[in-house]
Model the fold of this input.
Amino acid sequence: MTHQPPLNALAAADPQIAGLVEAEAQRQHDKIRLIASENYVSQAVLEAAGTVLTNKYSEGYAGKRYYEGQQLIDQVETLAIERAKALFGADHANVQPYSGSPANLAAYLAFAEPGDKVLGMGLPDGGHLTHGWGVSATGKWFEPVRYGVRKDTGRLDLDQVRDLAREHRPKLIFCGGTAIPRTIDFAAFGEIAREVGAVLVADIAHIAGLVAGGAHPTPVGHAQVVTTTTHKTLRGPRGAMILTDAEHAKAIDRAIFPGLQGGPHDHTTAAIAVALAEARRPEFRDYAHAIVANAKALAEALIERGYDLVSGGTDNHLLLIDLTNKGVAGKPAAQALDRAGIELNYNAVPFDPRKPFDPSGIRVGTPAITTRGLTPEHQPKIAEWIDRSVVAAGDDAAQDVIAAEIRELLSAFPMPGYTA
Ligand SMILES: *Cc1c(COP(=O)(O)O)cnc(C)c1O
Done:
């Protein structure tokens, strides 16, 4: 078992770190990885991310840099930008944000002043910290107004969004989130934003790969600004991008640099360009649809076993499960599952009576297992393992039996970045 590319120099220079990286590769190989925001990047993306491009400083943008020696870096960044624009059909792309959170900060810096009202989804309803949640700078420095899901349906309440937008006239409206199992109606958000004169920011961090692959409607054409991470369903390196229409391009570029950041991470930019080229291939469309097919099959199998899914199911890559009727909280369940070789995260559910650090639910996503090659036929077995593990929470021996069964299944499904 070896990491790919091999870590020869690293093992010689720093056996401690090399050993930990090797062990992490093994761990990722041996587990059913159901964290909805994670994936396995390709060997090509891994190689691009580990290049000498990390040695370069290139503050500014192609053709307007503050350091010399940009002959090749300019070409790398321009390729990433052109590929992003082509893949999503956007007028403009900025590929420099260090990650999803700074990408969202750029929207605030570009289009709002401290104290301005911003409308976003509440964190327990599925929104992200950077959509104005209280502990985030975005909730401290701006005045957040929050929408959520309906208690009876578990689905986003567009009437509430419209009413709040009309009442508060926010500068920014955020749509998208981290735990939304249903299709987002970007056209409806676009209409609301236009009516109240707000800039609509569609944060597609979770679903960018589904959008790119045609498995979720696109926000382009409805939202003036689209932010996304590149490392979730899009299956690129850790990083982010912002897509805009022509009118909002300059303000976003200025907000990223010099507004928020210094030099871009050029090795990451190269890896983003590689991931975007991969996402433009026909196989990626199949991948995006397979993610959704797996999620729907897993949802069905869990519902059959009596699991309570927020909104009753899924349209995308993720399931939010309320474990209240199973008599176990999210955190002990997630810990039992981890021991059983099933990696996921505990998560608040809408109207959760429990505390955020000890909530009622778990979140499950299929992007990584789909990359691994698992199909809808495997989902009843995964649901069985989840059920056995949750029922046996606290019984380590029972979890270890499941973990061995899972290692056996996964040994037939290679993982990029690792040879068995
Ligand atoms: C993951 C995520 C982010 C933040 O990305 P980081 O790279 O972790 O900063 C922002 N918005 C949404 C909706 C996300 O899911």
